[in-house]
């Protein structure tokens, strides 16, 4: 079983907490460009 994403495949939905403690879901931005910046040691 492979969980790899291939080019042009939709990303799986997930949720994260933003810097103001609000839950943000990837699906909230469906159809819009999204850039993820994962910063190690940010907090």
Give me some keywords for this one.
43 residues; mainly beta; two-stranded antiparallel ribbon; globular
Characterize the structure shown.
There is one protein chain. The chain has 43 residues and is mainly β. It has a domain at 15-43. 0% of the residues lie in helices and 14% in strands. It has no helices and two strands. The chain has strands spanning 15-17, 23-25. A two-stranded antiparallel sheet has the order 1-2. A hairpin with a 5-residue loop joins strand 1 (15-17) and strand 2 (23-25). It is globular, with a radius of gyration of 13 Å. The mean pLDDT is 84.
Bulk shape: globular
Q: Which structural class should the secondary elements be placed in?
A: mainly beta
Task: Quickly count the helices.
Answer: 0
Number of strands: 2
What is the succession of H and E elements?
EE
Strand line-up in the sheet with most strands: 1-2
Major sheet size, sense and barrel closure: 2 strands, antiparallel
Uncertain residue segments: none
Approximate helicity band: under 10%
Summarize the structure.
About 0% of the residues lie in helices and about 15% in strands. It has about 45 residues and is an all-beta fold.
